[in-house]
């Protein structure tokens, strides 16, 4: 099969393309990315299992003519491209609408006119907004940020495909963990780096805010195993665990006893969001998390050059 991955040079894309390249049933992988995040690490210091399978195409989601050209002969599309700038998810709505909403719309229009048979879209648990109780996919979306709103609009466009092809929407939790193209604006990644090298981290709010998280390797495994056909089309929460920010701090403090932390605007109580993992997803895709959070963070720290 021939696969196109939008945003394939990014954080999730780097991990996903590496796994896809190992599959015998994958003939070609087209990485479609505009490199707006300067994701040059994707191209450096490693080789895929079969380099001949992977090709890079620099392109924009809003360039509909070029996009249609790139989709010729493609069987599967992974739509990962998005504007994600933590913690500024509620500033400059146009910033998110342009890519996450209208860019997704252009991609869906192009896919509708193509021979694509399977479409996989990475959305966000941010579409739920906030909840003190763990939510599942039956809960109506109620995003609280411009980023969340734009991902919800993207889901609406992607859902148009469900009667025409296999369509999967994965609402990912906050992604963390090492890879070559990792994001350092994500909360756990940022904390681990600062704790390891500065021995001090800054906590915004009172630290009791709760979020859902998932390791980068689990995200890539789930996305890859969708190709095996065990999972039905639909919307799925892709999360590992819910944690308070202070839970992350406790783990780091255990590993780095001299760690210091300071609170910024400690009087603020930031919104809560708890999300239920999807058991059907984990079962059908054979996703098993056999490591504790402490073990994951320890492995993460060992990947730094100065460890």
Brief descriptors of the model:
307 residues, alpha/beta, Rossmann fold, 3-stranded mixed β-sheet, 2 domains, 7-stranded parallel β-sheet, 32% helix
Which range does the strand content fall in? 15-25%
Any idea what the CATH superfamily of the largest domain is called? Answer: NAD(P)-binding Rossmann-like Domain
Residues in helices, as a percent range: 25-40%
**Number of helices, counting only DSSP H or I runs of 4 residues or more:** 9
Mean pLDDT: 93
Q: Count structural domains.
A: 2
Shape: globular
Write down the CATH topology of the largest domain: Rossmann fold
Which stretches are low in confidence, meaning pLDDT under 50 for 5 or more residues running? Answer: none
Radius of gyration, in Å, reads 19 Å
Task: Write the H/E string, N to C.
Answer: EHEEHEHEEHEEHEEHEEHEEHH
Main sheet summary:
7 strands, parallel
Q: Topology, please?
A:
Elements: E1 2-6, H1 11-20, E2 28-33, E3 54-58, H2 64-70, E4 76-79, H3 93-112, E5 118-124, E6 131-135, H4 146-158, E7 166-172, E8 174-176, H5 187-197, E9 200-204, E10 210-215, H6 216-225, E11 234-238, E12 241-244, H7 245-255, E13 260-264, E14 273-275, H8 279-284, H9 293-302
Parallel strand pairs: 1-2, 1-4, 2-3, 4-5, 5-7, 6-14, 7-11, 8-10, 9-13
Antiparallel strand pairs: 10-12
Helix pairs in contact: 1-6, 3-4
